[in-house]
Amino acid sequence: xxxxxxxxxxxxxxxxxxxxxxxxxxxxxxxxxxxxxxxxxxxxxxxxxxxxxxxxxxxxxxxxxxxxxxxxxxxxxxxxxxxxxxxxxxxxxxxxxxxxxxxxxxxxxxxxxxxxxxxxxxxxxxxxxxxxxxxxxxxxxxxxxxxxxxxxxxxxxxxxxxxxxxxxxxxxx
Length: 173
Fold this sequence. Notes:
elongated, single chain, 12% helix, two-stranded antiparallel sheet
C-alpha cells in the first residue's frame, strides 16, 4: 500500500487496509502463523506536515520459549505517526533532540510505501520471549518431557562450569 499524503491536503482522509506480511521477512523463528494485519486510521494535515492516527489489529501464533507449545497472540493497539517534509528538518548545528522529534518521520516525496511502518509496529507488538503462562516450567533438559504436563525423575545435569572450583575446595575440619 502506498501512503499518499497529498490526499489529506484539503480534508482528513480515512484509511483502511489489510496487510499480508510473509513470515520469512519478519525474521522471527518463534512466529508460527500471522493473520492479516489490519490498519484503520485517519490522515490529516497538521503543521508542519501530516498526522496519521489509527489502530493496528492482528492475530498470530507463536511458540512458547520454554515448553515450545503453540501460544495464540491477539493484539489491538493504537498507533500514530507524524510526517514532516525533509526541508523542515533542523540542520545538525541547530538540532537539539527532543522526545517529540523521535516520533517524526521525515519525507521527501508525498507518496511512499506504508508497509515498512506497519511491519515496524508489528515487530514492537510481538512478544520478545513468548510464554504460554507465567508459571511455565519448560522442558526437561535431560529427557525432554514437558514439565507442565508431567513430572520426570531426571536429575538436573551438573553445571560443568564449577568443576575447576570444586577441585580447589578443601573439606572443613
